[in-house]
Amino acid sequence: MKFDILEQEDNDITLSPELAKAAKEELGETPAIRRQCLKEFREWIRREPRYSKGIRLDANFLLRFLRFAKFEMSDTHVIFEKYIHARTNHPEWFTKLNSAEDDKIYNLISRGYLFALPGKDEVGRTVIYSKACAMDASQFTSSDVIRVHILFYESLLEEPENQIYGLSYILDERDTNWSHISVWTPSEITKAFACTEGALPIRHRSVHLVYLPWTLMLVFHFAKNLLSHKLRRRLHLHPSFEELTKNERFFKKSLLPVECGLTSELSMEKMISSFLEKLDEVREPVLRLDEINSALV
User: Fold this and answer.
1) pLDDT digits (tens, 9 = 90+) for 158-216
2) At what angle do helices 59-68 and 31-47 cross, to 10 degrees?
3) Maximum Cα–Cα distance for the chain, whole Å?
């Protein structure tokens, strides 16, 4: 199915008072700056022959790049071109991202490998929860894992609050062992990090690893060195969920699924079901991004 590419009226963009305040304080965004930068960004895209068709020009899509670059136009162009390069060079990762039709994606999410918690962290950010051991190395490949992550990012970026606040992560490493790492070669890890951190306009604000086995610390430090200095400073290791939620500095205990053994009343199964419904709501605009690949091949 082919979706029409429609431009939103920039003047109709409305943010809640809290979100507008965060956008101004963290990104320097005001209605006037937003309108002007959207205009300049669209004009730049239209002047580029290679982007003459297939590119979404609606404000919500373009703002993910502008907000990531804090409305600096030269930086916006850089991240946008990295994104286009990644999409066109790795269509096996970026296209046909549909949790309803891709069994590998659906199964990874349903097992709890990656999903968004229904609540927010103490700053108001969406929290991504990952149960690493849910990835059975005998059933899934590194490509399956990357596709799930990209589906998440593309879907979550459809929401302005995620563009502005960024994301927090809780990585549950219980029962993780070498079999879960075996699907990755060092070159694949490097390529995946270069793609997901360098080409996707995601603001990774806080990453918390819980119960990381000492046997995997070497892998952790290898992967850590592939990250930017800024993101490395946002990594936190915790020996338990009790320590993670101590004094509720980062997260409330009630935010986590009941399987973490804290005070939540919601099971992981219910949280995952709710998140799959949210993915359904943004399936159309995410699949519409495939038009970029069709147009630029």
Assistant:
1) 999 999 999 999 999 888 876 667 777 777 777 777 776 678 999 989 999 998 877 67
2) 100
3) 56
Give residues with Cβ within 8 angstroms of 161, minimum separation 6.
19, 124, 126
The count of other CB atoms within 10 Å of the CB of residue 128 is: 21
Evaluate whether 3-94 and 103-281 have a shared fold: no
How far is the CA of 114 from the CAs of 62, 108, 151, 172, in angstroms? 26, 7, 11, 10
Average pLDDT over the chain reads 86
pLDDT band at 2 (very low <50, low <70, confident <90, very high): very low
pLDDT at 32 over 90: yes
CATH class of the region 3-94: mainly alpha
The domain made up of 103-281 is a member of CATH 3.40.525.10: yes
- Cβ atoms of 162 and 289 closer than 8 Å: no
First vs last C-alpha separation in the chain: 18
- Structure tokens given for 294: 């069709």
The residues facing 204 across adjacent strands are 167
pLDDT confidence bin for 296, thresholds 50/70/90? confident
Segments making up each domain of the chain, as ranges: 3-94, 103-281
Three-class SS of residue 199? coil
3-class secondary structure per residue, 63-130: HHHHHHCCCCHHHHHHHHHHHHHHHHHCHHHHCCCCCCCCHHHHHHHHCCCCEEEEEECCCCCEEEEE
Write the CA distances from 269 to 49, 116, 148, 167, 170, integer angstroms: 47, 12, 18, 22, 17
Structural Rg of the chain based on CA atoms: 19
Separation of alpha carbons 285 and 242, rounded Å:
39
pTM of the shown model: 0.88
